[in-house]
């Protein structure tokens, strides 16, 4: 077990590949999903302002 492993399992960074469970992947990708949604909304508002919707 490596230092910083919270669940008592092995580190996902050991070996040649990074392996995550589906739940870990969803948790890790959540900030990028939210950032993408915020960016899309900002783009929509900017488009509406520029093109006078």
From TrEMBL:
Region entry Disordered, spans: 1-22
Name by which UniProt lists this protein: Uncharacterized protein
